[in-house]
Design brief:
The protein is built from 2 helices and 10 strands. The chain has helices at residues 47-53, 150-155; strands at 20-24, 31-35, 41-44, 58-62, 67-72, 76-79, 85-88, 95-100, 103-107, 121-123. Strands 6-7-8-9-4-3-10 form a 7-stranded mixed sheet. The protein has a 3-stranded antiparallel sheet with strand order 1-2-5, with no helix packed on it.
Length: 174
Amino acid sequence: PAAGRHGHPAEACPMQGQPEHSGGCQCGAVRFEVRGELKDSSICHCRMCQKAFGAYYAPLVSVRGAQFSWPRGQPRHFQSSNLVRRGFCSECGTPLTYEAPDGMAIAAGAFDQPARLPPVRQYGMEARLPFIDALGALPSSRTEQDVEALEFLARLVSHQHPDHDTPHWPPQSR
C-alpha cells in the first residue's frame, strides 16, 4: 500500500478513559498496548501486503491518535520498499506492523481481541484475489468437528501466548 493509508504515529499524551487494547506475537516475546479509540481498521489486498502476511490480504489497524507502547520486546524490521518497513517478531515470525513515514498500523490478528476491530475499508483492490468473495460460501466446520484430526488434536500442546498480558515470557513451565 502507499504510504499513509494505514495510519499516523501514536500520540505521546495519556488518554484517560479511552478504550484500551493489547496484543502481541504468537510466542509472547513482543507485546504492545494501545490506549485510545481505534477507528481505522482496513484490509489491504496489494501484493506487497499479501507477501508480508503470507496470506490473501493483510488486515491492519491504524494507531492514529492513540497512545502506543511496546511493554515487552521490540519487533525486528524488513524494509519492504523505500518508504515502508514491516515489523515482525524475530522469535516466531508473527507479522506485527506496517510503518510508513506518516504512521503505523498493527496487524489486526495480533490484537488480543481482534473482534473489537472490524475492518471499515479495503485497499489495493487491483490485486484482490478473485475468490475472496466466495470464501464465506465454502464448506466449513469447527475444529473439534474434524473427526479425522481428533487424535492429532488430543496430543496437541499449544505454546502460543494467551490472549492477555502475562508477567513473564517465556513461561517458567515450558
